[in-house]
């Protein structure tokens, strides 16, 4: 990745707020003066101009900061439920990077609802943002072709459009988790999949490849497609699994919420399978059996996407659409190291 | 609170995306046609207009959605670290309410850094938002007087400006937590305070009042001001407390991160004090000793603030600045119900 985006502003640089304070007026007045002075008394306007000069402000710098609807001043970020720490971490990191370059971020949080996503994108394109970062749903995104601004997809690619994508190595992570469990002698490993997003599909592929490499068949009854990606759905499915005559001795939970549901269910079962989750979560190390996970740097996902989008928006990066894949790592804490029961 | 804000759009209503699809063009082309048609071939423009008519679109509705820099189409939200679930929950809820009224939200997440907060607010005012929701830091906010748009503070009031504030009953919650511990015979209750924000000050006041009502003096050596509001700082302080000759038999943790740090420290100590946290958190019920907390509806905090701001922006609410206080409730799970040790 190139590193051509502008430097962050120094925090000691005087701000518009300092101008307002020194002139003894409100921000709105500073704004009006800089934009021509309509509706401001001559004496007040003069005080504002003096304050601007005294503070060594470039007046056009203020004007630029104040110009409404300026095409290049905001990025849009469209993603799922912000109370999912995975999304919150992406949002936080991309805001930081955008802010360092003087860009605000307009947020659309859409709770994985395709209609909501479309409406949010439409609204944001209408707001003349300089670029879009989208954690896409499964629908067709060809409508974005010709949106007139660069688009970077985060976490998963979209259908119907060629654009940059920043994601994690889902297949590698799925393989890592499964090999870890196979290595400890597990032969009946269930995988619980949140609804068929791209990511969980790739994690399943890694699970299958690990089996194949070990010369083992996958028992398809242990590949469980959840009706939704909630802890509740995972809890119910895990209870059912563990009450089968021949339950799995290990469970690979394909997301953080799925892992939570698996662990909730296991509080009520006699047999305790090994558990590996995908994506780390707060308190994972504090649970009665600390939780082993495959994790990636989700903040880096947000940072990389924001940097790439800023470069695209500034025409500083004119390569064809890129596919940037961040690695996963295994964090062993206990739950994934239980031996198989009989 | 009045309920005069506009109805959410029906999801079956055709969108600009449907227009683009039907006309076989990109969103950018639809935008250009609606805004006058510059740079679009006549035949293409005609196809877009036909699509708009066929879909029963009000053309000025599209135009409105597309007009850049329109003053009334965005709210700004300025708050702390989004990976703190407390802030994420406020952000999610206020985005939902704003979205239902066709407003986007421009986000400034500033990690409780006063300079960062000022810069973010300046940037956002310059973007001509219809109003500001701010979780303020401790600095002076008089610079916002005359910003020309309504301001609603969330979670804590700001200094130097009269404006709406939506918050929780911090003092009542602090009292509730302390009375709960006193009621079980605890007489040495430590309180761990994140740096002196308004909220923890009020929680401390509730702690003192509960003692006074019970006719008890507060041992000031048990009132611990943390150097920062992190789990790490709370962990260190808790270790020190529990290694004193006369340790507390109960700990009141003033925030979710402080509670995490307290619980981390207690994994290493022999004596186990009762623990009550402030604000609920994911997995609180899954820990080895499920965690008792005083909690409020943080999503309701975000919703109420967004509704009030929309009403103010639409001049639908012209009352003097309001102070809306949401209640706290005690959720008992185990950690707060341990009896005092000797």
Automatic annotation (TrEMBL), chains A, B:
TM segment ranges: none
Domain HTH lacI-type span(s) in chain numbering: 14-68
GO MF entry, a single one: DNA-binding transcription factor activity
Xref: Pfam families: LacI, Peripla_BP_3
InterPro entries found in the cross-reference section: HTH_LacI, LacI/GalR-like_sensor, Lambda_DNA-bd_dom_sf, Peripla_BP_I
Gene3D superfamilies: 3.40.50.2300, lambda repressor-like DNA-binding domains
Keywords, ordered alphabetically: DNA-binding, Transcription, Transcription regulation
Protein name: LacI family transcriptional regulator
Organism: Kribbella amoyensis
């Amino acid at each position: 990745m190139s590193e051509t985006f502008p430097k962050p502003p120094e925090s000691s640089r005087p701000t518009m707020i300092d101008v307002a304070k020194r002139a003894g007026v409100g921000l709105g007045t500073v704004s009006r003066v800089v934009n021509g002075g309509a509706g401001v008394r001559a004496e007040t306007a003069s005080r504002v101009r003096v304050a601007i000069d005294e503070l060594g402000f470039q007046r056009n710098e203020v004007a630029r900061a104040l110009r409404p609807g300026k095409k290049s001043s905001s990025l849009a970020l469209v993603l799922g439920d912000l109370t999912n720490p995975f999304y919150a971490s992406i949002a936080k990191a991309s805001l930081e990077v955008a802010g360092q370059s003087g860009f605000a971020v307009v947020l659309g949080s859409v709770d994985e609802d395709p209609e909501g996503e479309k409406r949010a994108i439409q609204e944001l394109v209408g707001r003349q943002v300089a670029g879009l970062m989208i954690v896409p749903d499964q629908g067709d995104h060809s409508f974005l072709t010709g949106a007139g601004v660069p688009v970077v997809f985060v976490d998963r690619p979209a259908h119907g459009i060629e654009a940059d994508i920043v994601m994690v190595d889902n297949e590698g992570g799925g393989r890592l988790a499964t090999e870890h469990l196979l290595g400890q002698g597990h032969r009946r490993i269930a995988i619980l999949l949140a609804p068929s997003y791209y990511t969980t599909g790739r994690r399943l592929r890694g699970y299958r490849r690990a089996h194949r490499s070990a010369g083992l068949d996958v028992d398809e009854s242990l590949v469980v497609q959840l009706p939704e990606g909630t802890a509740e759905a995972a809890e119910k499915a895990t209870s059912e699994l563990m009450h089968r005559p021949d339950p799995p001795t290990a469970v690979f939970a394909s997301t953080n919420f799925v892992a939570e549901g698996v662990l909730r269910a296991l509080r009520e079962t006699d047999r305790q399978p090994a558990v590996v989750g995908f994506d780390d979560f707060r308190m994972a190390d504090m649970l009665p059996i600390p939780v082993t996970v495959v994790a990636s740097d989700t903040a880096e996902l947000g940072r990389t996407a924001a940097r790439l989008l800023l470069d695209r928006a500034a025409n500083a990066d004119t390569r064809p659409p890129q596919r940037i894949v961040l690695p996963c790592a295994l964090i062993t804490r206990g739950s994934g190291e239980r031996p198989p029961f009989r």
